[in-house]
Amino acid sequence: MTALSETAAREGALSTLRRGLRLSPEFRAGLAGTLALALVATAGRVVVPVAVQQTLDKGIGADGRYDIAFIRGAVALCALAVLATAVCAYLMNVRLYKTTEGGLANLRVRAFRHVHDLSMLTQSGERRGALVSRVTGDVDQISQFMQWGGLMMIVSCGQLVVASVLMAVYSWELTLLVWAAFLPLAFVLRRFQRVVSAAYTRVRERTGDLLAVVSESVVGAPVIRSHAAEERTAARVDRTVEETRRAQTRAQGLVALTFPSSELVAALATAAVVVAGTLLGVGGRLSAGELVAFLFLVTLFVSPMQTATEVLNDAQNAIAGWRRVLGVLDTEPDVADPGADGAVLPRGPIEVEFAGVGFAYPGGPPVLHDVDARIAPRTRVAIVGETGSGKTTFAKLLTRLMDPTSGRVLVDGVPLDRVRFSSLRERIVMVPQDGFLFDASLGDNIRYGRPSASDADLRLALTELGLADWLEGLPAGLDTPVGQRGESLSAGERQLVALARAYLAAPDLLVLDEATSAVDPATEVRLQRALDGVTRGRTALSIAHRMSTAEAADEVIVFDAGRIVQRGPHAELLRQGGVYGDLHASWIAQRAI
Ligand SMILES: Nc1ncnc2c1ncn2[C@@H]1O[C@H](COP(=O)(O)OP(=O)(O)OP(=O)(O)O)[C@@H](O)[C@H]1O
Question: Where is each ABC transmembrane type-1 domain found (predicted)?
């Protein structure tokens, strides 16, 4: 599987919510206590209507006389209830914030780790910005619901139950009337929820697209400027902003429809209660105090119905967010770590074997066909071939960034997919064409290969690679900041850092994708020297773009249209001519320009 899982996208809202909540067991921590607080907070609210009813019916007599002590007691009870409700609501809020923040932080970490575990192919199936939004914006949506909507849901449900029970105590006929008015609305809301859910899923998708387009435009700013494509890019960003706005407006519009309908039903229910309550009162079956208390309770019953529309809004947004986060977490890494069951490679130069290896990118034609090759330990091999002949694909299979479609890759006789990731990443290191530098100091970037290395270790490594003079020439030595993605260094210097990083990591098999960018003669000499130092005594495969690398290698492997067509030392291949002869001729011609 290479695309992100679609299971979550097809799943119903409730099942997504259930699965999402199960994913973060932290949400359930201390839930009983929070619910108890919610119950007290809700129960406190019904004290006021009951006290009013008691005051009207018992505190004030029909003859106009009143019992001041009774009324004082009722008022004091109300004040106490209001205070208790406020304190419980505060404590409940604090508890919910604590548990949800903890749960969401873990969810973010898990989603982020999982993105890292996914293979390169899966990651490239989704735009980077959209992947980022799954770990950031989508989790934020969940957070909003968990901290406000979720709370309201708990309180509202409690309020609905308590208000209904108390209303029934006063008059079951009037309670039936209120329920009869609201039941159709609840039914309609439930159906409507599906439409709203789809609208919010679209909002989350558009937001992900927006992040992807904006981040691509920022990262690609130099290319955009150099091709004077600012207007085209701005138009693309504008279009995505507009699509996001439209999706948001539609979703909010749908939700807005629910609010007036619940207002309307509330007004109708209240009017019906007044009329029917008066009739019951005239018939002697309801006192004035009971009718007033009932009307209070109807307000308590209605308010959860009204907040339900806002909660629905939040819940839909959160469910859409959960769908996208689950989409990441449901995706099985197709290049999986065998973990503790896997093999650990013993230290020492590595032997590599490709046995009948074939590979096709998802949905594409085969790009490697039946590749057989054995590379002896400590051999320095240059891989050459026309562009698109399959060299990088070969290197990615060797470093297990992807698995072959057919055949096997073995290191020291062990199939690569049986080797533990920890052992694999320690023993086999790939230096990509443009080794990514982080926005930190030069020293920290080199240390990335071995975090425990001291400054003295770094200096020694650079000296061994013949780069001591280069380090001396830098304004702040190892503390020199390299800027974002290493932009403060030249392309050649970035390659030097990438080589030093690999040298410090001391792998036993080194796979180098030689950079194609032209460098000045002094850096070229340094690079050659560093390359020699890094590969000495190790099994090393270099995807060679320079003739000098092929000449210096023990052996050259020539790729053509996904097959190995020639193999041997440079001088012998030169004598043979063929594809290597043509490549060599074009290198000579390039150098002459
Ligand atoms: N991520 C990908 N998805 C689909 N096809 C790809 C992908 N990467 C490479 N290919 C295709 O696979 C074939 C081999 O590509 P590969 O990058 O291995 O060639 P290469 O010899 O390293 O080329 P170059 O010297 O230009 O880097 C090409 O036809 C390329 O279009």
Answer: 32-317
